[in-house]
Amino acid sequence: MKNILFLIVALFMILLLIGCQTESNQGESEQEEENIQEPVEEESVKEEEVEDREGEIELDVTVNEHQPLYRVNQTNWAIEPISEETNSQVVLLTIDDAPDQHALEMANTLKTLEAPAIFFVNGHFLQDQEQQQILKEIYEMGFVIGNHTYTHPNLSDLSEEQQREEIIALNDLVEDIIGERPKFFRAPFGVNTDVSNAVAEEEEMVVMNWTYGYDWEADYTEADALAEIMVNAPELRDGANVLMHDRAWTREALEDIVIGLREKDYEIVNPKTIETVSE
Ligand SMILES: [Zn+2]
Questions:
Q1: Structural domain tally of the chain?
Q2: Which of 56, 126, 152, 164 would suit a FRET pair with 199, their CA atoms being 20 to 30 Å apart?
Q3: What spacing in Å lies between the alpha carbon of 159 and ligand 1's midpoint?
Q4: Domain containing 160: what range?
Q5: How far is the CA of 188 from the centre of ligand 1 (A)?
Q6: Where is the domain boundary, 13, 43, 65?
Q7: Ligand 1 geometric centre to CA of 233 (Å)
């Protein structure tokens, strides 16, 4: 009887032992399964990390107010959105040969309309205190100041040294007046040379000509005719880079031009949202 009891206890213990081993085997096989699944889990973790990083980048966009939205097409001079989400139906306003007789009044008109613009200035209009004060006022109203050379020459007629002087001396002068060097360059008559391109790059300026303008043509030296053509020009399209000048008839037409462009659903683009060289 004792023997039978012993046998039963022994049998029970053996069964218990086998049971434990099976369990631990199962535990191992579960671990193995986990090992197999591990790479998959790692991938999903990576995906989450990527999403996190994208989230951070998106956050940076909202935090960084100076993130450029547009760039200047260096072939056709149009203003193009960098991202697909950015409005492409925009027009850039530029006013050249400033500040001569009308720039300040033009700036006031644009300011009232909340229409941003670039004023491309010449050194020969910045010789006395009064002219320099006008530039400062235009800048402090929030407009962007661009380089249009010191004396408005055709750069292709000049030596390399003269071209450098035309561009750099004006940047020095503008910096003296407003505390900042121009970030955009427009060559007189749209004549860019290898030298002016190189100097613009050294000076960290974006080169731009324009896509259309009419205020120097005989038929459009009158405000109504000018406003009419600027708003109905065949060249008006998304990203148009509009050239105007510091002239009486352009000053008179300016409000109608801005209103007319807006009625056609064009947004007047802020040049401060255009990518510059230093960014
Ligand atoms: Zn000019």
A1: 2
A2: 126
A3: 20
A4: 70-273
A5: 5
A6: 65
A7: 21
Gap from CA of 152 to ligand 1 centroid (Å) = 6
Q: Residue 45's CB: how many other CB atoms inside 10 A?
A: 10
d(CA 5, CA 240): 102
- Residues surrounding ion ligand 1 at CB below 5 Å: 96-97, 188
What's the CA-to-centroid distance between 86 and ligand 1, angstroms? Answer: 31
234 C-alpha vs ligand 1 centroid, how far in Å? 23
* Assigned token pair, 273: 């949202």
Establish if 239 belongs to a structural domain. yes
One digit per residue, the tens of pLDDT, for the chain of length 279 reads 556 555 555 555 555 444 444 444 444 444 434 443 444 444 444 444 444 444 444 444 444 456 899 999 999 999 999 999 999 999 999 999 999 999 999 999 999 999 999 999 999 999 999 999 999 999 999 999 999 999 999 999 999 999 999 999 999 999 999 999 999 999 999 999 999 999 999 999 999 999 999 999 999 999 999 999 999 999 999 999 999 999 999 999 999 999 999 999 999 999 999 999 975
Residues 24 and 140 in one domain: no
Query: What is the distance in A from the centroid of ligand 1 to the CA of 242?
Result: 13
* 153 CA to centre of ligand 1 in angstroms: 9
Distance 244 CA to ligand 1 centre (A): 9
CA of 151 to the centre of ligand 1 (A): 10
Q: Are 253 and 226 in contact (CB under 8 A)?
A: yes
Terminal-residue alpha carbon distance, the chain: 96
Q: HEC states along 15-79?
A: HHHHHHHHHHHHHHHHHHHHHHHHHHHHHHHHHHHHHHHHHHHHHHHHHCCCCCCEEECCCCCCE
